[in-house]
Amino acid sequence: MFSAPAELVAPPADAVARRSLASAATKAIGAMLGFSVARDVRERLPSLLWSGDGATEAATPSGINADGTPMQIVLSGDAGGWRVRVLFDPGTDAADARQRYRFARRSAYRLLGSRHTGARGLRNLLSRFGPDAGTDADRFTEGVLWLAFAPGSRGLALYIDASVREPDEQWTRTAHFLRDHVNGDLASPMLDAWRATGLLAPASVGAEIGVQGMRRFKAHWRLVREPRDGELAAIAPVLAVPHVRRGLRSLVGERTLEAGGVLLETCFVAGCASSGDAKLDIPAASLAPDAVRAANECADALGVRALPDSATALVAASRLSYAGVGCDADGRSRLNLYLHPIPSGT
After folding, report:
1. Share of the chain above pLDDT 70, in %
2. Which of 40, 48, 258, 337 is the most buried (most CB within 10 A)?
3. Does residue 192 belong to any structural domain of this protein?
């Protein structure tokens, strides 16, 4: 869905390895938010991540990390400070893709709660844009539905893989998703123009579900080639803002962007088809070698608050998978760091 490694391997399949991964995530969250919040995550995360139904040999890779493990800790900073989210791919131990999807849906409902204002919208979204009945789910070999939540808060974000179908179907389903949730009269011509550039391929569609229901919708796109001058700015003008360009340069340094791994996130508010909010996610292979220094230089360029000591230690002790620079229509910038927690002994 997001990452594009050359070869994925199976994620932790035995109970010891799973506990070790969950423990690494708990430690990371505790360092940022306090251990009372971390304990809650430690108690909930294993049952959200693993179904317990699959045999060891049934474990399948996740596309979240290059080594197939199904979880990242996401640090997101802006001028107001830094926040933590957990991004994960449920059910990698399920016996097949259909069982994996069913377990992922259960995890989403468990995170949200049946009485949450967004529960009905979640059901409608998954029934329309999740895998079709029959064998369609079998296409999803690296994850079907990814989930994200902020420890200690209500709500979730979810992302549905849009990359496994034929190109025409990818674009058609993405167009249907945006027509359903934003201004349909504007969504179709906008996507037609984006497709005509030959720059983008659909990667995923998603939504954020908060206490007021579903208000923000997302589409992720993989850059299939290096953009020409002005192409990205035509699609996402906020990425051409001078401080955003400086932030991107500080992250990449002298390295060349590998187009196949770079992702563009476009965000939409319900009822509005203009994408005034966008983010560019850059894989670790294209980032400057000193992750902490590059992140602080990028934060300074963006006007984002500097990394606190706890976040700096976490970045230094983790594998950085992606870094993302985003900006909304009002010029407010953000920096996201996608970290792969390293279990002890690895």
Report:
1. 82
2. 337
3. yes
